[in-house]
Amino acid sequence: MHTLTVELAERSYPIYIGSGLLGRDDLLLPHIRGQQVLIVSNDVVAPLYLDRLKAMLPGKHCDVIVLPDGEHTKTLETLNLIFDQLLLHRHERGTTLIALGGGVTGDMAGFAAAIYQRGVDFIQIPTTLLSQVDSSVGGKTGVNHALGKNMIGAFYQPQCVLADINVLNSLPTRELHAGLAEVIKYGLLGNSAFFSWLEANIDALMGRDADKLAYAVRICCEEKARIVAADEREGGLRALLNLGHTFGHAIEAAMGYGTWLHGEAVGAGMVMAADLSHRIGWLNAVDARRARALIERAGLPVAPPSSMTADQFLNLMSVDKKVQSGRIRFVLLRSIGNAVLESGIAPALLDETLTAGNTLCL
User: Fold this and answer.
1) d(CA 173, CA 225)
2) Is residue 317 classed as helix, strand or coil in its secondary structure?
3) What total of structural domains would you count in the chain?
4) Are residue 165 and residue 182 in the same domain, yes or no?
5) Looking at 141, 170, 199, which one is the last position of a domain?
6) Are 343 and 330 a contacting pair, CB within 8 Å?
7) Which among 62, 124, 282, 344 is most buried, taking Cβ atoms within 10 Å?
């Protein structure tokens, strides 16, 4: 087992990474201060792991809410179901919410914890690769709005993150591939050596090699913990973690949340970001093709939906959280491992990327 720490002064917390951790109550119980617990899970994960988690909570008064699975459920209406359960069972300020599931479950449970009685404790137990390497770490919580993804939320840190590599064995192949998008993102934005490691080991990751997966999760969490510690509320550096997301969120909104998985949209979005980086004269053609090739090898889309127009992209990207003074800011690449935030993009070059379709980076 590896233990990392997100260094945020009095709000610092550990990330536990390893195999067989779902069962280690010695890791979980020290982070639960009161006697009340609400487990928030979904109808895919709960049948697999809920009983195992409940067995880790001896002596606790444990309530459960099982939500429907899927990005389309990440709404204020679903969030209210969590509050209904908290109030029905009279959970007090000393309660702890435990998120058992992927990014959707973690985001909603964290947001509920952030605003229930003005803030109660919560713990992340991520069960997808995407949530283990990204969404469970850093305290971004929230829900979607019909006009924009993750536009309603709060920064709110968990008490701990427990990432059991073994649960990835039950992950559907499509979800595993989607998680690899966020893994590749960390190589592209700030760790060229890790990107090269991924080029050599992507087949092993897709084959669910436990040691390779544990290493990838650890490196991604180390990268994110370092960035979050330096810029918790996304004043600058942390925005780089959105590489591919400005394009990707637009794809998700246009196609209907859940039609494209988040990682699939981010995969195509990163190829678009690489393409735009090349068009403005930053990323060389060889590295642009390397980025596209690795994303494609991970079983991810490398082009946006053919039905999306440039105007549709621009309208949806205009409500992205990185918009500043009415200007869309993009995370782009000067080279593999060197990402920057840029808003001064020539409209003609952006239009070329938005209309290039399957010719991206060729």
Assistant:
1) 27
2) helix
3) 2
4) no
5) 170
6) yes
7) 124
Q: What is the mean pLDDT of residues 6-29?
A: 97
Is residue 98 domain-shared with residue 228, that is, in the same domain?
A: no
Which position has the higher pLDDT, 344 or 339?
339
Are both 9 and 140 inside the same structural domain? Answer: yes
d(CA 361, CA 347): 18
Query: Cβ contacts of residue 217 below 8 Å, gap of 6+?
Result: 17, 129, 132, 133, 163, 165
> What sections of 256-319 are H helices per DSSP?
262-279, 285-297, 310-317
Cβ atoms within 10 Å of 341's Cβ, excluding its own: 16
**Are 59 and 155 in a shared domain?**
yes
**How many whole angstroms separate alpha carbon 235 and alpha carbon 126?**
26
Residues 196 and 207 in one domain: yes
Domain span holding position 315: 173-359
Query: How does residue 288 score in pLDDT terms, banded at 50, 70 and 90?
Result: very high
Last residue of some domain: 124, 144, 170? 170
Residues catalogued as catalytic: 118, 140, 182, 224, 234, 238, 242, 245, 249, 262
Residues near 38 by Cβ (< 8 Å), separated by ≥ 6?
A: 62, 63, 64, 65, 82, 85, 86, 89, 91, 95, 96, 97, 98
pLDDT at 362 over 60: no
Both structure tokens of 96: 């702890």
Q: State how far the Cα of 322 lies from the Cα of 148, in Å rounded to an integer.
A: 12
Give the Å distances, CA to CA, from 33 to 37, 105, 168.
Answer: 10, 22, 29
pTM over 0.90: yes
Q: How far is CA 158 from CA 138, 187, 193, 344, in A?
A: 8, 25, 30, 36
Say yes or no: 261 and 188 in one domain: yes
Q: Residue 238: CB partners within 8 Å, gap ≥ 6?
A: 138, 227, 228, 230, 231, 232
Average pLDDT of span 215-238:
95
